From TrEMBL:
Protein name: Carbohydrate porin
GO cellular component labels: membrane
Signal peptide: none
One Gene Ontology term of the molecular function aspect: porin activity
Family: Belongs to the OprB family.
Record GO biological process: carbohydrate transport
Renumbered residue ranges of the record's region Disordered: 1-43
Organism: Gluconacetobacter takamatsuzukensis
């Protein structure tokens, strides 16, 4: 959402954020309650003017952005198998302003691609539900998004059509995006309850998105996409990135996903302390999604018996349709002085949905970021965040059935909780270094390791993220 509270803010039809290429939990840029467009200053990128190539391309309406992420992770204690892992990603975005290139006003063509590498700390060592990093997404080299956007009515209305990703615009908290744990971007409530996690990084789906700003403080958004970006079944032993390794499946199978969101922005300080008080902007969102696809029951099989029974068919009963509602709040609560970059911001996000066909029925997250408060490091940010997801009633019932019938070693379900403490250091305008600490309770959301029946100790994760903008 492009807030009028950001000076010189431009509408998305003409200059979308280059960070749209990244998962919604990203280390760039420092968090703010309002969305600010990235600078066109070439000194903020490692290659600068690239020997004059960038200015020449800009005159023709072409902008190329390259971002590289390198991460080292280590499971220091608990989980499944303590030890280190590496993951990385390189993202390339090509944006064409059609007014400069073709004389077609307020149009934008966007093409992006990803190269994802490394191993999964969460899957191979930790065993958690909430993935420690948003870049832990399965190795592949793939097309990400391919869409055309057109602005209307002085860009008050913006339409995108093509293969689009939803998690950089919908269900997003700008302050939560500072954190590295993937759940602070696209949460469990969608990544676990939708086919292949839904149209979210690193996947996109065919569809259309409309964004309308009827007044400066209000944005209304809606999108319609295919609900199954990789065409796979709901349960599969094949990873989604293996089913569609190139990102060119352009699936039209399965159901249709509808999502809508209303965003309101305002300045709390002006409401409570007058126009001369230091600005305290905030953005509050309410939204929901509806999916016409078929979703598996969490307790009963295709004949109406218990899935946990030794006599079960092993195939769940499928229901038509699914839904979810959510609220998101980003609020600056303190500013050192008028216009100061020394701020404290908080965020909160909550989701709810149907407990019969969704493993996770409720999710809550919250956190606080401290921006510019480290002496001598005005561009650095410190953050602390917590999150948990609660199982639906039928998932809980299924676990109890399995214990009673002796068909599982996992024991009772317990909500996995995780806390993250992280520090973002702006080494240069184009180089961000972010050490990270995460602690997990009830790893995997179960009482015991389902493979061995042994208790799983709480997980201690240490990480380091290095992000470079070229």
């Amino acid at each position: 959402m492009l807030s009028p509270l950001a000076p010189g803010a431009a509408r998305s039809a003409t200059t979308p954020q280059v960070t749209d290429i990244l998962p919604s939990g990203v280390p760039l840029p420092p968090p703010t309650p309002v969305e600010v467009q990235p600078s066109d200053d070439p000194t903020t990128e490692l290659l600068g003017n690239a020997g004059g190539v960038r200015p020449w391309l800009a005159r023709h309406g072409i902008r190329i952005n390259v971002q590289d992420v390198e991460e080292l992770w280590g499971l220091a204690a608990g989980g499944l198998h303590p030890g280190p892992t590496y993951d990385g990603m390189t993202a390339v975005t090509l944006m064409v302003d059609t007014e400069r290139s073709l004389g077609w006003r307020d149009g934008l063509l966007n093409i992006s691609a990803l190269q994802i590498r490394g191993r999964s700390l969460t899957g191979e060592r930790l065993g958690a539900l909430n993935t420690a990093s948003g870049y832990d997404a399965g190795r592949s080299t793939r097309l990400f998004e391919l869409w055309y956007g057109q602005g209307f009515f002085n860009d008050r209305l913006d339409i995108r059509v093509g293969s689009i990703d939803l998690d950089t615009e919908f269900l997003v908290s700008q302050n939560a995006s500072f954190f590295l744990n993937a759940s602070f971007g696209w949460p469990l409530s969608t990544s676990s309850n939708l086919y292949s996690g839904g149209p979210s990084w690193p996947f996109s789906a065919l569809g259309a998105r409309a964004k309308w700003m009827p007044i400066d403080q209000l944005v209304l958004m809606g999108a319609i996409t295919d609900d199954n970006p990789t065409r796979g079944p709901f349960y599969s032993t094949i990873a989604p990135t293996q089913r569609d390794p190139s990102g060119t499946a352009f699936s039209t199978s399965g159901g249709t996903l509808f999502i809508g969101e209303a965003q309101f922005s305002g300045d709390v300080a002006r409401w409570t302390a007058g126009k001369d008080a230091p600005s305290l902007p905030g953005t509050w969102k309410v939204g929901g999604l509806y999916d016409t696809g078929r979703f598996p029951d969490q307790r009963y099989d295709s004949r109406g018996g218990l899935l946990a029974s030794p006599d079960s068919t092993g195939q769940p009963l499928y229901h038509h349709d699914n839904w979810m509602l959510y609220v998101v709040a980003d609020q600056m609560i303190w500013r050192a002085a008028k216009g100061s970059n020394e701020t404290i911001n908080v965020f909160m996000r909550a989701t709810t949905n149907d407990g019969s066909r969704n493993r996770f029925a409720t999710e809550i997250q919250g956190g606080v970021t401290f921006d510019g408060l480290v002496p001598g490091r005005g561009d650095d940010t410190i953050g602390v965040a917590w999150g948990t997801g609660f199982y639906g009633s039928r998932a809980i019932g299924n676990a109890r059935d399995a214990m009673r019938l002796g068909t599982s070693l996992a024991g009772a379900l317990k909500p996995e909780q995780h806390v993250e403490v992280t520090y973002q250091a702006a080494v240069t305008p184009y180089l961000i270094l972010q050490p990270d600490f995460q602690y997990f309770w009830h790893v995997g959301g179960t009482s015991f390791d389902p493979q061995t029946g042994h208790p799983i100790a709480n997980g201690v994760v240490l990480g380091l993220n290095l992000t470079t903008t070229f």
